[in-house]
Amino acid sequence: MSISSAIKSIQDIMRKDAGVDGDAQRLGQLSWLLFLKIFDAQEEELEFEQDTYRVPIPEKYLWRSWAADSQGITGEELLAFINDDLFPGLKNLLAPIATNPRGYVVKEAFTDAFNYMKNGTLLRQVVNKLNEIDFTDSGERHKFGDLYEQILRDLQSAGNAGEFYTPRAVTCFMVNRIDPKLGERIMDPACGTGGFLTSAFDHVKQKYVKNADDHPMLQKQIHGVEKKQLPHLLCTTNMLLHGIEVPVQIKHGNTLSKPLSSWDDEMDVIITNPPFGGTEEDGIEKNFPAELQTRETADLFLQLIIEVLAQNGRAAVVLPDGTLFGEGVKTKIKKLLCEECNLHTIVRLPNGVFNPYTGIKTNILFFTKGQPTKEIWFYEHPYPEGVKNYSKTKPMKFEEFKAEMAWWDDEADGFSARVTNEHAWKVSIDEVISRNFNLDIKNPYQEEVVHYDPDELLADYARQQDEIGGLLDQLKDILGDALTNGGGAH
Hints:
Blueprint: H1 3-15, H2 22-49, H3 63-66, H4 75-91, H5 101-110, H6 120-130, H7 138-154, H8 168-178, E1 186-188, H9 195-207, H10 214-220, E2 222-226, H11 229-241, E3 250-252, E4 267-272, H12 297-308, E5 309-320, H13 321-325, H14 329-340, E6 341-348, E7 362-369, E8 375-380, H15 402-407, E9 424-428, H16 429-434, H17 454-489
Parallel strand pairs: 1-2, 1-4, 2-3, 4-5, 6-8
Antiparallel strand pairs: 5-7, 6-7, 8-9
Helix pairs in contact: 1-6, 2-11, 4-6, 5-11, 8-9, 12-14
């Protein structure tokens, strides 16, 4: 059975279980099972490679001990083991990060995880389906990596979880332009399921890892924080899937809950799509300077990124149009950004990149810390020929960014080879200041295209007809009154 068929069968089995309610819980259930399955597959590899290797969790909790045998425990016995032994045992595992980092990763992954299934026989069927996937086989693992992307995309339709996933085309483009290198500390402070981090890991591995001695350095340079349990568990599993043996740098918590002034860590590269359109819980804003306090999540993350970037550190950040034209605290944050960093490029994405989950128009801001902004280049990303909007079945593709990449040039040369064209233009910092840091600057080389929707035109026409009809009725009434009054006078 193919991997995609196995996962579909698993989801069909879960739908029969009374304890699993909706896509979000199905994904949550699948996530901890996948984590243990992949973790054990990696354990087997480590045991084979290292003669003195010690298992980081009690052996009875390893997948091979309770799940691998298709004729093993099932029904009420299986449920009792999972609910009364496995989960409490892993949640309360004694695993100091310094002496047992892989055990610590397991404990963190299970801190807020739950077993939703109530039917032990159905749960055994799910486990047996998962056993059809061999995660020790590199080919199978590669296929599953692609399928995992689909699982993450499924999160978008599970309630309000759309914030967890950024289209791969956008992720790859941002990583490609930032070009993280071996040894650089790479961070996503709102890492979701780990799309940016795995993309950066793969980029460094393919471009800069030359020998076996480079791998330990790469393993340690990836850092992420995720607030919510499900995406954190998926992110940790994603790291294991990509070969990061000890993803202890993937923290479960709220990056914004730490006072900005207390950040000692500095990052060379930050690549992120922070949540936008939401507000933080009361009190979080107190961690930021008084004049820059707000509860809007994206504004707080932008401040954090500016603070945490090292000197000459590079960042690529997805932000909504509201950040560009917003006033008040937003103006102060943009002023800080332009004074502390060289905001050299803003790529304006077209509508629908995140369809059908949000229609908010977005932008990618690229900046480097250490020198103030002198001029900002804008690049308006066009739809490809024949495309009027993106959708879930027709998403944006990485190949669309080839024009930007060919135009980009080298920051070390001050982007001196960049040229203006129908999609690219630049503005000076003086113009930005005169606009009170309103960065919602339209393309001067293109007339605004007005798109007429046929339904809207028909509705407008109907409204106009109603208004004309109403005016005619009023006119008849007026004329009727006049004639009646006039006749009485004769």
